[in-house]
Write the structure tokens for this entry.
Amino acid sequence: QLRLVESGGGLVQPGGSLRLSCAASGFTLDYYAIGWFRQAPGKEREGVSCISRSGIGTNYADSVKGRFTISRDNAENTVYLQMNSLKPEDTAVYYCATQPAVLNICNLLPQTVLSWGQGTQVTVSS
């Protein structure tokens, strides 16, 4: 069975850090660009960050630039999202997703997603 599995979410205080992991089961992640998306209650799903198949190209939403860092370890078949200086407005369910591999670029558009993980909850609260 082909699956994406997110982990690493949880409850953290404002200013804290979390590292999310996205692991592939049943297929190889390095054929794809990978995106992280999030959805807060009552809001649309939005792109947070993405990384190209090669790992050379990355993109970040303006709201997370300078705080979040995406990386991939193709040998481990895993993509990571390091989240620092977390804010209450970062609270959401975070999803990783596969996207088509196009040279060294990636995008933050949910409509280009090929497959989704099940999501992991991130709650930033004191």
Q: What stands out?
A: The chain has a mean pLDDT of 96.
